[in-house]
Amino acid sequence: MQNGWVREAVTSARRVVVKIGSSSLTTATGGLDTARVDALADVLAGLCAEGREVVLVSSGAIAAGLAPLAIPRRPRDLATQQAAASVGQGLLIGRYTASFDRHGLVVGQVLLTVDDVTRRVHYRNAYRTLRKLLDMRAVPIVNENDTVATEEIRFGDNDRLAALVAALVHADLLVLLTDVDALYTGDPARPDTRKVTDVHGEADLEGITLGRPGKAGVGTGGMITKVEAARIATGFGIPVVLTATPLAPAALAGEEVGTLFHPVAQRPTARLFWLAHATSPRGRLHLDPGAVQAVVTRRKSLLAAGITAVDGAFTAGDPVDLVDSSGAPVARGLVNYDAVELPTLLGRSTVELAAALGPGYEREVVHRDDLVLL
Ligand SMILES: Nc1ncnc2c1ncn2[C@@H]1O[C@H](COP(=O)(O)OP(=O)(O)O)[C@@H](O)[C@H]1O
Ligand SMILES: N[C@@H](CCC(=O)OP(=O)(O)O)C(=O)O
User: Fold this and answer.
1) Most buried among 33, 163, 167, 282, using CB within 10 Å?
2) Of 238, 273, 308, at which residue does a domain stop?
3) Ligand 2 center to residue 31 CA distance, Å?
C-alpha cells in the first residue's frame, strides 16, 4: 500500500478514536495532571472544530484514585485497583467535563467490559450509544469498567479496548497517545535505539524490542499492547498513529511524526477476524485426530462425536478454543451448548443424540461459519 494514500487517509479521517494512557495524564507524584488533561482537551476540541468525530478512550482511573486514597504506588492486587478506579473514574470524568466545557463541548462517560465489545448483542448496544453521542456532538469518553471486571475477563490495559472500539464505531483512524513520541527499535531510554516511522506489516516489527511500561510506573501494557492494538486495528483496515499528545495535531495534519501503522490491504471477514483477535476463550474443547482433520483440513463444523473432553464454564454463544490431542489450539469458535450440557453428548453421533434427546440436540457443537482457524 502506498505511503501517500495512507497519509491522505490520516488527514481526511472523519471519525477518529483517540486513546490516551495513564502515563500521559498523571503527575510524577501521582494524581491527575490538570494541565495535561486540558492540553488533551484542546487538541481534541481542535479536531471537533475541523468537523471530525472524536471518541476518546481514556485510561487513568486507577492512577487518579491513588492519591485520594493515600496509596503510594500502583497496586498489584485487583481489589485495590478496583477501589482506586472507583474513586479515580469519577475524578477523571469530572476533570474532562470541565476541560471540554472550556470549548463548549459536552462529554459522555461510557464504561465497557470485555463482553460489551466481543459479544454480538452487547456490541450492538455499545455501538448504538456511541453513535447517538456522536450524533449529538458529544465526546464519548470510554474506559474499561474496572470495578466489575474480574482477573480472567479483563483487558487491563486500554490499548486493545481502543482498537476494538475503533472497529466497533467503524473509525477511519486510531490514534494511540502515550508518553513517547513514537515506536522505537527498543526501550527509548537506551541510547542505541532508532525511531520507527512506518510499520507496513510484521516484517517491519522484526528485531524490535517491545518493552515494559515507562518510568511513570502507572501504565500497564507498555509497547507490547500498543503494537497488539495496532495489529487488531490495521487488520480491520484502520490506520493507526502512535505518538505523544503535543504531536497529535501535526500527526493528524499529515506530518511525518510518530509511527504510522499501515492498514492491511486484504481485509479478512470482519466477524471472523473479530472472533480470532477480539475474544478471549471461555473454555477448551479437546478434539480427536479425526475431528481436527475435519475442522482444519476439510473446514467442517465440529460435531460432538469428535470431542474427547471439555474444560471451562462457558455458556452457549461463548468463544472457545478447539485444541488437538497435544493441547495446542487449532481453531476458535462460538459454541452452541453450555459446558454442563456437553459431557453427556461427547463421542455420540448427531443421529444418536437426536433420537435419544430430541431434535434440538442434532445441532453442531460449533458451526463452521462460526469457526476461525488459528
Ligand atoms: N520499543 C519501544 N518503543 C517505544 N516505547 C517503548 C518501547 N519499549 C518500551 N517502551 C515504553 O513504553 C512506554 C509506554 O507504555 P505505557 O507506560 O504502558 O504507556 P500508557 O500509559 O500510555 O499506556 C514508554 O514510556 C516506553 O518507555
Ligand atoms: N482502565 C484502567 C487502565 C489501566 C492502564 O493503566 O492503562 P494504560 O495506561 O493505557 O496502559 C484505568 O483507567 O486505570
Assistant:
1) 163
2) 273
3) 14
